[in-house]
Amino acid sequence: MVFENLSEKLQNALGKLTGKGKLSEKDVDIAMREVRLALLEADVNFKVVKNFTKNVKERAIGNEVMQSLTPGQQVIKIVNDELTKLMGDKEVKIAFASSPPTIILMCGLQGAGKTTTTGKLAYNLKKQNKRPLLVACDIYRPAAIKQLEVVGEKVDVPVFSMGNKHDPVDIAKAAIEHGKKHGNDVIIIDTAGRLHIDENLMEEIENIKNIVKPNEILLVLDAMTGQDAVNVAESFDDKLGITGVVLTKLDGDARGGAALSIRAVTDKPIKFVGMGEKFDQLEPFHPDRMASRILG
Ligand code: GDP
Prior knowledge:
Number of strands: 8
Distance between the termini: 10 Å
Strand content: 5-15%
Helix content: 40-55%
Subunit structure: Part of the signal recognition particle protein translocation system, which is composed of SRP and FtsY.
Mean pLDDT: 95
Strand order of the largest sheet: 3-2-4-1-5-6-7-8
Domain SRP54-type proteins GTP-binding: 269-282
Low-confidence stretches: none
Family: Belongs to the GTP-binding SRP family. SRP54 subfamily.
Subcellular location: Cytoplasm
Bound molecules: guanosine-5'-diphosphate
Number of helices: 12
Order of helices and strands: HHHHHEHEHEHEHEHEHEEH
């Protein structure tokens, strides 16, 4: 189950309210203290937590809620609403170019799941009758090009590569020409991963961005890394202006901090989540469904 621990703690805290016929401000305060702890333990950004509990409390102690017949249920509904809002309210889809090809630049730290996600995205787009082309712009890690080629073969999507002796900017340019000629309507560029934020590599993606003018810059983040993922998102966004995030490994025992903080901290939407290693395990991110999932 996604965010099992957080789910259990929130359900516990809020469950205490539902048995009561009437709620006092103190009841709400006690519950909010537990909610606050649960969120902090789940590694949610502390400012986000503070704002969140403040918003819930303000709404919860309003007369309408307190005097309703089911105040506890009303508070749960408010928490659900606020969780949904925190994650961006609505699903944000890929922004396809009005005249194809749509260009998607993939970036992220090594190990986050960038190459796997690139394959998953291609698989997902193919199912929507698109004709994607994958582009191997990671020329530094010897196995990277091969890995993308293997992924391409598995999802039956062509891969454009020029080996590792060309500038990634030139590879990207050539790939777009190639894609246009071959009727590819979505071009997904896999860039070099990095262990940490690295100025040179970041500059390289920026150069690719300036030349190819992508419709989407998707940052792949590992949900297991919690607040580190949020910091990485802030850095990439400052430098590149990302258009969205793919949060991977939600099937693992991630605590929830990244999923619940990224939108609030960076104002950039989570567009997809990775729910496993297989190519069909990429899901569009629906804030309302995720909130309901967490609250059980
Ligand atoms: P890259 O270095 O960012 O390109 O990362 P890779 O795509 O090579 O992925 C690193 C590891 O994470 C691989 O073992 C993937 O199978 C795994 N991985 C990627 N996405 C997910 C996911 O959503 N769930 C799980 N469980 N594993 C994933």
